[in-house]
Amino acid sequence: MKIQIFVVMLMFSLVLPAQAQLPGGSWEFGWDTDMDTTYVLALEEDWDLEDTIKFYVDNTQSTTLNLDIEYEFEDDLPIDFDGPESVSVGANSNESFEITITGTTEDEIRQFGADTSIELTVRAKQTAGSAEVRTEEIDGKMKFPRILKLKPTLSEPTDELFAGSSVPVDLLVENEGNANDAISSAEVSIRNCPHLSVSKLDTLENQVIEPTGVNSAEGKTFELRVEASSSHQERMCDITLTVYSEGASTSHSTSMTISVKAPTSNTDEPIFEDDESSTNTDETSALSSLSAAQGILTILLAAILTRKP
Which domains does the chain have, with CATH numbers? Predict the structure, then answer.
């Protein structure tokens, strides 16, 4: 019996010092940022990314709480995480801590796309000496916003445009965003030339444009026709073409200047007088000759009559 009592007392003597190192109370670890749904990163139109998310530690213990913080995420992500590796929270305190998120390069962000989520796990470990006392972890998902940016470019025609004719003009539409977009419609405005028009705009409608340069995708080229009426004068014409994005409900424009040539006139052909003009000229010449002969005869006759016998 004495031996059993001695063993029990020895066990208590070994356990109590270890328990004395553990502070009373508890602590909580969670997201301060709303991460219940997929968090959309604050990506700018110029692909610049600098965002922050926060976690909190609520320490209800009567002593300071020291935690080691670990981060787990996939390799080769187009973003970098920067957060504290350890935190200290005073007794009966609640504190928040920031994780800074920055982007890498435009190409890497566009290549990653807007439909793939990024998962992040954050762990908080409480230790006593070299022993791990408690570990809590939180998870969160985030993604890039959809950036849709169509870029139309008109090319100068290779042929000259004459009044009463038409020439083909190429339109290249690229997608500088990170998700597929479509052209809902297109329109043209023309300045200085009311007798000029552009046809085949309907071929652009509902055309899907993939992100240019992502997965070797290229922009799409469309052939339009610029037409000048036969009454068009020779002048320079300004053409502005606008395409409308189906996904973003935005418009994007491109402009060009085209020269319209008037029909070439032939000035080397001989000029012929009409028959009536020729007849009048001949009659006038004949009358002039007759009048001169009559005048000479009159003078001779007067000279003969005035001579004395």
Answer: 23-143 (2.60.40.2310), 150-261 (2.60.40.10)
Region for residue 200 given its phi and psi (left: phi exceeds 0; alpha: psi -120 to 50; beta: otherwise): left
- Looking at residue 293, what is its pLDDT? 57
| d(C-alpha 148, C-alpha 26), whole Å | 48
More confident residue, 303 or 232: 232
Q: Structure pTM?
A: 0.71
| Phi (first) and psi of residue 221, to 5 degrees | -110, 135
SS3 239: strand
- pLDDT tens readout for residues 39-49: 999 999 999 99
Residue 124: closest CA among 22, 54, 55: 55
pLDDT at residue 285 greater than cutoff 60:
no
Q: What are phi and psi of 202, to 5 degrees?
A: -65, -15
Pairwise CA distance, residues 166 & 15, whole Å: 97
